[in-house]
Amino acid sequence: MARYAFEHLESIGEALRRSPFGLVTDVDGTISPTAPTPQQAEVTPLCRRYLELLCQQIALVAAVSGRSAAQVAEMVDIGGMVYIGNHGLERWVNGRPELTREARGYQAMMAAALSELKPLLSMEGIIIENKGVTATIHYRRSPDPASAEKQIAETLQNSSQASKLHAMPGRMAINLLPPVATNKGTATSDLIREYGLRSGVYLGDDVTDIDAFKAIHDYPQETGFHGLAIGVISEEMPEMFTGEVDFTLNGVRDVERFLEWLSRTASQPG
Ligand SMILES: [Mg+2]
What we know:
- The protein is an alpha/beta fold.
- The chain has two domains: 3-100 and 182-267, Rossmann fold, CATH 3.40.50; 103-177, Alpha-Beta Plaits (2-Layer Sandwich).
- Helices cover 33% and strands 22% of the residues.
- The protein has eight helices and 13 strands.
- The strands form two sheets. It has a nine-stranded mixed beta sheet, sandwiched between helices. Strands 7-8-10-9 form a four-stranded antiparallel beta sheet, with helices on one face.
- Helix 7 links the parallel strand 11 (199-204) and strand 12 (226-233).
- The radius of gyration is 18 Å and the shape is globular.
């Protein structure tokens, strides 16, 4: 049973004393409240302020998102932060998205799948977000989300192109991904290795973050790395993943308070 982070700040602080320390965070639902459409979502001013401070204080501050890397860069836009997009399939490097090796070559398949999925757009409240190498079908604005979800799943199964892709459920959305082993978890492990981290935190609110929670826990102990998985609980995402996390926070407001605490803790001599 995961515990409420604010009741255990001392042990969290203890675990994070090892340097280099890194923070890897999801974006939507974690540092940005859920909005009716993806375009309307924004990083809250307080999250922005503390992430900016943390960039000066710790070895790594990274955002990992299902959005495209370009969208993450535009939306977060904090100097010194690392942006990973498309569920780990691309990274923002020198002002451009760079696909991982595994992801290259799947853009044509995704485009073909999306053209087969066009009939979905005649359903009320369905938005298809084309992110190049991945796509997300949102049904948040559907008048009947449960039946919309079912209909989307059926359409995916009946599409010769989309059925070759990996369909991953998210918050009021279904993500279409290339059938490769890259995810938020592999992206997080890569960051830990690259930055030689000895401690770190992953913050996330969604089922797609579970791979990253696992990566934080399964990272080889002999490297000296010790990480904490912190789940952001919301009404939409109840406690379904609390078995995967060490601690919980309640919503984006709590994330703001946690980042503030983290920044204050990081500025104190250990
Ligand atoms: Mg999220």
